[in-house]
Every structure is written in structure tokens, then in C-alpha cells.
Amino acid sequence: MSDSPGRTEDHLRRIGTLIRDARKHRGLTQAQLADSLGTSQSAVNRIEKGQQNLSVEMLTRVSDALDSQIVSLGTPGAMHLRVHGGAKLSGAIDVKTSKNAGVALLCASLLNRGRTVLRRVARIEEVNRILEVLESMGVRYRWLNADNDLEIVPPAELDLSRVNADAARRTRSIIMFLGPLLHDHPQFALPYAGGCDLGTRTVEPHMIALRPFGLAVKATTGEYQASVDEGVRPTRPIVLTERGDTVTENAIMAAARSEGVTIIRNASSNYMVQDLCFYLQKLGVNIDGVGTTTLKIEGVRHIDRDVDYSPAEDPIEAMSLITAAIVTDSEITVRRVPIEFLEIELAVLQEMGLQYRISEEYLAANGNTRLADVTVLPSVLHAPIDKIHPMPFPGLNLDNLPFFALIAACAQGATLVHDWVYEKRAIYLTELDKLGARVTLMDPHRVLIEGPTHWSGAEVICPPALRPAVVILLAMLTAKGTSVLRNVNVIHRGYEQLAERLSELGAQIETFGDV
Ligand SMILES: CC(=O)N[C@H]1[C@@H](OP(=O)(O)OP(=O)(O)OC[C@H]2O[C@@H](n3ccc(=O)[nH]c3=O)[C@H](O)[C@@H]2O)O[C@H](CO)[C@@H](O)[C@@H]1O
Ligand SMILES: C=C(OP(=O)(O)O)C(=O)O
């Protein structure tokens, strides 16, 4: 190691603490660990205090003895959380604007020759990835202030020859560049879409929706090769084969600059789609039917307007924070909840016995979305009578399903959670078992959860999916003892400063990185 002595000591102390935590999780005394390492109890004591130099060989032996990877190598930048469970939360917290509107609006800013300012954008990795891709195309952007207002200025001509493939491959939202780009670019290539690892997520509906605008896409190694037959536009209503959010957004963005009227049927009316429509209306695009499944869009061939738009608050973050209160049995007020996108969730929770207060409604800064403050009160929960399953809006949101799994684990009785959509997400919920939950995987889409759970701290590596990772973090808030959650970078994809904001409510969470 070419480290300075001070840093080495600091690293040794941090490794020592990790070893102590892992030992305690295993329920071992220092003497028992020493035995299995063939060393003395005093040596283990020195190791845990960071007072003993450690060879790689010794570290490997400790890792084996504790069945825990104490130090991860080769993942530069990996961040982890140490959570001391059991603390009650109190106070109030504001919901931030949504990830999913944020990424859609960034893609939509490509439709506009003028300057777009987006207010209070969630400063999350998913947004950063799209910004990196935009920048690689020649778009300039600037964070304007501490409120996270973001300015986007497109170049006279986009340069699609050097698209940042590394950033693009890490987000599924890259697929939403197809709709905006097809207007001015007869040929272009885009890297394949990435995102959470949730099993197969088809892009076929996007192809079907965009074909009437002249788009043909050939998938080659690692890239979509797009070609556009200019002048082709829909001759009849576009009927989406599934009511997906991003596919609806792609169709809207294709229609926005296509002259004449386009009708989209079986459109998603979800929150991010509504935000996109409100933004486009500010750009002069006439859209009828916002909030319904039939949209009538009057395209404008050239859009060149300086525009200022405020995306609405995130219903999934709101659900995450409500869940934090429920699992810790605390009273907290979640402010700026986009209530119209959580009504069914709250109705189901009420049936499960949740007590909460709700304020008068008020409007989000976009002038449209209804907000309210929700105060969650400590409650005794029981399993719902029926299974919990998602539906396109106005159903229970698919991204909120994992939170119901955690809440079900806190409730008395057995709950069936059915994720009919994603092939893999439900499987990750069985990770809750490491903290004491009883989650039985019935098949890849259904889990049976038996509560209530006697949560106990553990060390868990984040699954490669945003919501299941957050659910594990929230369970750790209530689990007895200390837990370690590794590789939490996946959480930063969709949440801004979640650990820090939970700490402000009283949670005891420390962040640490790889040594
Ligand atoms: C950036 C963004 O906005 N992401 C959201 C968006 O992703 P996105 O719109 O990309 O969602 P997908 O297209 O992957 O759809 C999700 C899954 O649902 C299936 N499907 C969808 C609609 C339908 O009517 N029938 C059907 O079977 C799809 O085949 C797919 O397997 O919607 C997902 C589903 O709400 C959310 O989890 C994501 O957070
Ligand atoms: C699945 C999700 O998002 P994405 O579409 O960005 O992968 C999510 O937000 O939970």
C-alpha cells in the first residue's frame, strides 16, 4: 500500500469495525472467532480496534470464518450503509420530484430548439446518466442553484456520432431518445437500453408505436440502428399493444413534432406521462385527454421556445417514506405527496389497519398535480384479505409493489404479493429473509409473506434493482442490532440522499466506502 500512515490507520479501523459487526451478526465471541482463525483472542481484539496490520491472507481467513466479504476489491466507488436498527423516526420530510418524469423531460428537451429550465430536478444517478448522454450529443446543461434547477440548451445541430455508450447502456430511459430523434435524423444509432435487472423487458412495443412515424430499427451488436422514412406519419390512430409508460412517452414525443393530429389509444395516464404532456403544452403542442388512455396530439413541426417547467413530486418516493414510517412504527409527516397517484395504495393500507391523517390538498408547482401532506401514525397492521397486485394507472403502481411486501412482513397474517409484470423483481424480495422475514417464493411472480416479523440485523448485498434495494434498507431501520447494506449505488439511481434524509428523521445510518 502506498497510503499515508494516517489513511492506513483509518482503513484498519474501518476494517476492524466491519469485522466486529460481521462477528456479532454471526453471534460469535472474540474468543470463538480467534479459535477458528487459529489465533488469540487478544489478536482479534487488536484487529477489531484497527491496531493490527492485516495481510490479505488473514483477511481472507476472517472473511471465510465469518462467511462475509469484509473488504470488497475491484469495485471502486462502491458505497455501503451501516444501519443501527430500532430508532423511532419523527418529524416531517418533503417528497422530491420524480425520477421518471425527470428522465422523460430531459429526453423531451431534445424536441425544443430553445432553452428548457426544469425546476427542482431530483439529483440522482439516472438523471446524471441521461445528462451525460445529452452532453455527448452537444447539449449544454447547467445546475443553476442549490434547489436543483437545471438548464438545458441544445446545440444548433446535434452530433450523434459520439454518443456516450457507457452512460447510455446504464439506463433504460435511453430508449426515449428514439421519439425525439426521429424528427431530424434520417439515420442514427443508439446503444442498447440498460437499467434495473428485472428480467426481460421488451422494447417491441416501442418499435410498434414508432413505426407509423417511419422509424425502422435494426438491432445489431450492442446498438439499435435506426432509419427514418421522412414524411411518413400515422394514417390512423396508434394503438399501443401495452399500456407502458415509456412507450406512451415515446409515441407522444414522436407525435409532438409530427404535423397534423395523432391519436394514441391505450396510452398510459401515469404521472410521468402527465408531466411530459404538461411540458409539451407549454411548448405549444396541443394535447387533449391528459390523464386518460386516449390522447389527441396536434404536432408542431418546429419548436423553439424558452420554457420553464416544474415536474411533480414522486409517488414512489412518497410511498418509500410512508413505508419508512410504517416499518419503524413511527409518526412522521410526508409532505408534498402526489396524492392522486397514491390513492389506491392508501386505500389498501387503510384496509390493512393503517392510521393516517391527510391535509387539505394543494397544487404542485406544475399547476396540475394534486398534493397533500400525509401523517402516518403508529398502527397495528393485519394482512389484506385479497392478494396485492399492480395495474397500470389508476391501479396500484407496479413500482410500489415491493413496499407492500415489506409492509406485509410487518402485518399479522399471510399476504400474497403478485408481480405479474416483471420476470425477476419478486425474487429479490426473498432477500428480506436474511433479516428475519418469512417470504416464500411461490413462482417467479408470486411471493407469500407471513408476518409479523421479528427483524434482526444482518449483512446484505443490494440486489441489482432499485426498489427491492430500498425495501431492504427500510427493513434494516427496524431490525434489532446493526445491519450492513452493501453496494447501495443502485439506490442512488433513483433517490437523492435517501440515507441522509432518513437520518434527519432520526434513523441511525452511516455511509462508508470500499477500502
Ligand atoms: C423511466 C420510467 O418511467 N420507468 C418506469 C416505466 O418503465 P418502462 O415504461 O420502460 O416499463 P416497461 O416497458 O419495461 O414495462 C414494464 C413491464 O410491464 C410490461 N407491461 C407494461 C404495460 C402493460 O400494459 N402490460 C405489460 O405487460 C412490459 O412488457 C414490461 O415487462 O414503467 C415501469 C412499469 O410501470 C416502471 O417500473 C418504471 O419505473
Ligand atoms: C424499474 C424502475 O425504473 P427503470 O424503468 O428506470 O428501470 C423503477 O423505478 O423501479
Keywords for this structure?
alpha+beta, 434 Repressor (Amino-terminal Domain), UDP-n-acetylglucosamine1-carboxyvinyl-transferase, Chain, 3 domains, 5-stranded mixed sheet, 4-stranded mixed sheet, 18 helices, about 35% helix, about 20% strand
Overview of the molecule:
- The chain has 515 residues and is an alpha+beta fold.
- The protein folds into 3 domains: 5-66, 434 Repressor (Amino-terminal Domain); 79-96 and 313-513, Alpha-beta prism (UDP-n-acetylglucosamine1-carboxyvinyl-transferase, Chain), CATH 3.65.10; 99-309, UDP-n-acetylglucosamine1-carboxyvinyl-transferase, Chain, CATH 3.65.10.10.
- Strands 2, 14, 15, 16 and 17 form a 5-stranded mixed sheet that branches.
- It starts with a helix and ends with a strand.
- Residues 126, 172, 195-196, 198, 399, 466-467, 494 line the site of phosphoenolpyruvate (PEP).
- It is an enzyme of class 2 (transferase).
- It comes from Stackebrandtia albiflava.
- One of its GO terms (molecular function) is DNA binding.
- Please identify which CATH superfamily of the largest domain we are dealing with: Enolpyruvate transferase domain
Which class of the largest domain in CATH terms?
Alpha Beta
* Helix content class: 25-40%
For the biggest sheet, the summary is: 5 strands, mixed
Shape: globular
The residue-averaged pLDDT reads 93
The domain count comes to 3
Q: How many angstroms separate the termini?
A: 11 Å
Class derived from helix and strand content: alpha+beta
CATH architecture of the largest domain: Alpha-beta prism
What name does CATH use for the topology of the largest domain?
A: UDP-n-acetylglucosamine1-carboxyvinyl-transferase, Chain
Oligomer: single chain
Q: Quick one: how many beta strands?
A: 23
Ligands in the model, by name, code or SMILES, are: uridine-diphosphate-N-acetylglucosamine, phosphoenolpyruvate
Rg is 25 Å
Residues in β-strands, percent: 15-25%
Low-confidence stretches: none
Q: Specify the number of helices.
A: 18
